[in-house]
Amino acid sequence: MSTINEVKDYITEKFAKDISSEDLPSDIDLNATGILTSVSTVQLLGWCGRTYRIPINSIPIDPDVLKTPEGIAKFIDSHRVGADK
Amino acid sequence: MHVVGGGSGGWSLRSDRILEARDEEPAASTGPGFGVYRALKSPRLIGECVSLLDRGGVAALVPASAADGYFDQVVRQVAHFAESRDTAGDTAAGGILALPTSGSTGSPKLVAIPAEGIVRFMEWGKRYFGFDASTVSLSLSPWNFDVSLLDTWAVLAAGGTVVAADAARLQDTDYLRRLVFEHRPTFLQTVPSTLDALVKAIAEDDVQESVTGLVLTGGVAAQVTRGAAARRFPSAVFYNVYGATEVNDCSIQELSAREFAEADTLPLGEPITGCDIVLGLPEGGHVPVDHAGDAEGEVLVRTPWMALGYLMDGALHPLPAVEVEGHRTLYPMKDRVSCTAGRLTYLGRRDRTVKIRGQRIDLDEIEQAARRTGLAGMACAWIGEEGSDAELHLAYTTAEHAPRPASGLQVRMQLSRLLPSFAMPNRLHLFDRPFPLNGNGKPDLPMIKKQTEGK
After folding, report:
1. How far apart are CA B439 and CA B101, in angstroms?
2. What CATH number is attached to the domain comprising A73?
3. pLDDT tens digits for B325-370?
4. CATH 3.40.50.12780 applies to domain B2-271
5. What are B72-87's pLDDT values in tens digits?
């Protein structure tokens, strides 16, 4: 499964049960639509760290990058262990 | 039958002018000077209440569907009060109608309305709306709800006819349509949920010219619902009425069908004659609405028909009161309004302003925004604790005439154009049926929350 689909699955299962994973647009603003809050963004980052072994405490994180599913997927793909830098 | 008090020498309420009522003895518990009744829409209920008030007794109405435990608690409280009143002799004299303010699951809190206040209110209703023997009122709300003092008591007192719709059958469109077509009502009083039921029951092209007056009270109706009502009742004058059980109606706005349909937000209007409305200003101090100019503040009210207090623990407890210089004590409505040239517009409930993640939000504004999207019929917002986080929930029903229920994604996208991100609901709950209603015909929040749990 591609990273963006995994991200969408996680978000819809955890934070937006009213939306199916397939229906969640890749470019939706997750903050403006109430899907992510400051607290759930921290939870999302924790999930990224655990699932993709991203050292979230030691890399700079731009909150704007985490506003959309595609931004989160790009963030994961560029920082996951074993990713090409 | 007569209700005592008032300068008119009493009013006659003819129960033979009640149609479609159930010819049943309402479940009751009666004793010396009191009666507690389940508010079944039966002519006998009105008869017994009026008779008790006439004799200076206490008549209490509880929702027809109230749990037995709730009913028994009300009986104990009212019996205790009636007894202590008998012996003390100095508590409020005269008949008292006691109506509950909360649903049937909480502790009973009864608002004690004096018979003479009811008479004054009926006099105003008759005069303002022109009730007479030709008036036919379709009573949609339960009779334990204070709105029945206008659409049932005042109409009967004016010699009019009341069509007593069974409040438990309002979602039965065939039933409601039959009542409207068979009896051709001239007057309707609705809360948002009953207005919703009415427009669902009557087809768009079944225009009801007989309706000359439609009162909306008890909350905010979606613009699409108001538009549908205006098309069905084109000959009606529409009224938005504001009040509370404790003070009954205190302000009114008259609107044409077009204004009723098109207004983004319905104004609360101007104080009803004899009602005192004062704004508590945010910077401190108070100003009467007619001298307020352009201002915002909290509403304080005194009406000629306001309650004596609450019947609790077998005693009469005074209403909350605010001392304002130059006025008698006023009842704090806990609502925020804006005032422009003496006209009020509702902004929200003071106790519905909450803080979430460091930001102050108004749950009323969120519900209004949901309705303004045109995707939601009714909307109900609340804060829920999820683990260590607080989340903002929004339950909504499908908008009238929407081809299909709006998805959570559609609602979120539309709402995000109206609300800042910190005020956006986090959890959305679509109801594919009308909201459960409490004993007063308003959305039953505890039940709505319960039905969303575990989804």
Report:
1. 9
2. 1.10.1200.10
3. 877 899 999 898 999 888 899 888 777 888 887 788 889 889 989 9
4. yes
5. 999 999 999 999 886 6
Say yes or no for a CB contact (<8 Å) between B421 and A31: yes
Q: Could B408 and A38 be called an inter-chain contact, meaning their C-beta atoms sit closer than 8 Å?
A: no
Average pLDDT over chain B reads 88
Phi first, then psi: give them for residue B330, nearest 5 degrees: -120, 150
Task: Write out pLDDT tens, residues B260-269.
Answer: 999 888 999 9
Q: How many domains does chain A divide into? A: 1
Residues in A whose CB is inside 8 Å of some CB of B read: 15-19, 23-25, 28-29, 31-35, 37-40
Q: Average pLDDT in the B202-222 region?
A: 90
Range(s) of the domain holding residue A39: 3-79
- 3-class SS letters over B20-41: CCCCCCCCEEEECCEEEEECCC
Q: Who among B408, B421, B427 is closest to A32 (CB)?
A: B421
Q: Which of B391 and B303 is assigned the larger pLDDT?
A: B303
Which of B428, B432, B453 is best to mutate for the A interface (most A CBs within 10 A)? B428
pLDDT value at residue B17: 92
Q: Flag whether A84 is in a domain.
A: no
Q: Which residues of B touch A32 (CB under 8 A)?
A: 416, 421, 424
Local structure of residue B322 (DSSP, 8 states): B
Chain A closest-CA separation from residue B56 CA (Å): 55
C-alpha–C-alpha distance, residues B138 and B152, integer Å: 8
Residues of A in contact with B383 (CB under 8 A): none
User: What length is written for chain B?
Assistant: 455
CA distances from B396 to B139, B337, B367 (A): 26, 25, 9
| Residue A85 placed within a domain | no
In a domain, A43, yes or no: yes
- Categorize the per-residue pLDDT at B171 as very low, low, confident or very high, splitting at 50, 70 and 90: confident
A37 with B357: Cβ contact below 8 A: yes
Q: Give the C-alpha distances (Å, rounded to integers) separating B144 from B49, B83, B153, B360.
A: 11, 23, 12, 35
Query: What pLDDT does residue B374 have?
Result: 87
State the architecture of B357-452 in CATH terms.
2-Layer Sandwich (3.30)
Task: Pick B361 or B394 by higher pLDDT.
Answer: B394
